[in-house]
Specification:
Bound molecules: pyridoxal-5'-phosphate
Order of helices and strands: HHHEHHHEHEHEHEHEHEEHHEEHEEEH
Radius of gyration: 22 Å
Strand order of the largest sheet: 2-8-7-6-5-3-4
Number of domains: 2
Strand content: 5-15%
CATH superfamily of the largest domain: Type I PLP-dependent aspartate aminotransferase-like (Major domain)
CATH architecture of the largest domain: 3-Layer(aba) Sandwich
Helix content: 40-55%
CATH topology of the largest domain: Aspartate Aminotransferase, domain 2
Number of strands: 13
Distance between the termini: 58 Å
CATH class of the largest domain: Alpha Beta
Largest sheet: 7 strands, mixed
């Protein structure tokens, strides 16, 4: 679309007509070229919504999610519009106003107020914003676990290295069946110098779903903060930050939310905003402000489109689908040669990530690429710092048929 006065007027009219509850795709007149209804029920439709290379079975959303055609279309259109007159786009408030739509959609998705929600580049970025914004001092202590992802940990390590903050690491076994013990360990680790607990909602290592509401409640009772890394939860299972009761929650746009790469969300509850002051949001929590500078606005708008789609399907339904495929993998892989399931059995602790241990003789970092090369099935090799294993992620575009094929191939490849 070429920039001209007519388009601009039309564009502004559409934007101002868009109410807070309005859908982002309606706010971008040139988006949604491939708008399709929820394609949940049929394999054909589901596959068609994405750009997967032919025959690829993608069980790797926990590492990096795919954008749908719809999201790519919306992102591309707005990007093209921006590039037709970059200065105009930013200077005349199109961009800030449009970007705010994503904030509204995302806040509603996570169950918080818009002025508790910020756009970031990733979970790591959101976590680092919180770390930086806390102003912890030498001798202050933070509690975390042995199963955190580097993205949720590196900020704390930085504070330990340069500012003398002390990290207390709770050791949680990989095979856990009782989360009360986790609560007991956290409780036992809290001292008068402890300022916060920093923990994943869903462990990247095993997919264990942590009892965040209980952990938040414990933290609040001890007057410390609960900071939650939601990289493996938002978009994968239903998340309501108010029900969780945590003080801060961060998510990746580019995993389960299936937004453009380099996007993320950060929630800071109103009652923690006087304690956490991220530098990039000093001016305001708005997506585009003086202290953030220019950001990836097409990506942010694309993320709005992606979240809107998940909202339209309904996260209850998404979670149910994802868990049902994961449980199918669990049950069918239970008695497979050379494979031990580490993740929890179907139930409250299960998430759409399923991790399995391989014997040392089968190196996961070789096994995963071999299966990809031979069978076009993509899943993750679990990091060696945790265990030698593989991890499957099941999301809305995956089907029972795909899962059954994966089960058959894994059994075949692990036979001897
Ligand atoms: C639990 C967890 N936290 C953080 C990250 C890093 O996410 P991002 O790349 O969005 O910073 C990951 C990535 O896999 C993760 O699993």
């Amino acid at each position: 679309m070429k920039y001209n006065k007519y388009n601009r007027r039309k564009f502004l009219t559409t934007v101002s007509a868009c109410t807070a509850a309005g859908l982002l795709m309606n706010a971008i007149p040139f988006s949604g070229a491939n708008a399709q209804t929820n394609s949940f029920s049929s394999d054909e439709e589901t596959k068609n919504d994405y750009l997967f290379s032919p025959g690829l079975i993608y069980l790797n959303t926990g590492t990096l999610g795919p954008c749908s055609r719809r999201t790519i279309g919306a992102t591309k259109k707005i990007w093209e519009h921006l590039e037709s007159f970059p200065l105009q786009f930013y200077a005349e408030k199109f961009a800030p106003e449009l970007a705010e739509k994503t904030r509204i959609i995302a806040a509603s998705f996570l169950g918080c107020e818009v002025d508790e929600l910020m756009m970031t580049r990733s979970t790591t970025d959101g976590m680092n914003a919180v770390v930086q914004g806390l102003n912890l001092k030498s001798g202050d202590r933070i509690i975390t676990t042995n199963q955190e992802h580097e993205g949720g940990l590196s900020g704390w390590k930085y504070l330990a290295k340069y500012h003398g903050v002390i990290i207390d690491t709770i050791n949680i076994p990989f095979e856990v069946s009782d989360t009360d013990k986790i609560l007991e360990s956290i409780n036992a680790a809290i001292t008068s110098a402890t300022k916060l607990v920093s923990i994943s909602h869903v462990f990247s290592s095993t997919g264990l779903r942590l009892p965040i509401a209980e952990i938040s409640s414990l933290a609040r009772s001890k007057n410390i903060l609960c900071i939650v890394d939601g990289a493996q939860a938002a978009g994968s299972i239903k998340v309501n930050v108010k029900e969780l009761g945590c003080h801060a929650y961060m998510a990746s746009g580019h995993k389960w939310l299936m937004g453009p790469k380099g996007t993320g969300l950060l929630y800071i509850s109103k009652d923690a905003q006087d304690k956490i002051h991220p530098m990039q949001f000093e001016d305001s929590y708005n997506t585009y402000n003086q202290s953030t500078g220019v950001g990836n606005l097409p990506g942010i708008l694309g993320l709005g489109t992606a979240i809107e789609h998940l909202t339209r399907i309904g996260m209850d339904k998404v979670e149910q689908h994802n868990i049902s495929l994961r449980n199918r993998l669990y049950t069918q892989l239970l008695n497979t040669n050379n494979l031990t399931i580490v993740s929890s059995p179907p139930g409250a602790l299960a998430s759409p990530l399923l991790s399995c241990r391989l014997p040392e003789k089968i190196e996961s970092t070789k096994f995963s690429p071999m299966v990809l090369e031979k069978h076009k099935i993509s899943f993750r090799a679990v990091h060696k710092q945790w265990f030698n294993g593989i991890r499957f992620s099941t999301h809305i575009f995956n089907t029972e048929k795909e899962v059954d094929k994966v089960i058959e191939i894994i059994r075949k490849e692990l036979k001897s």
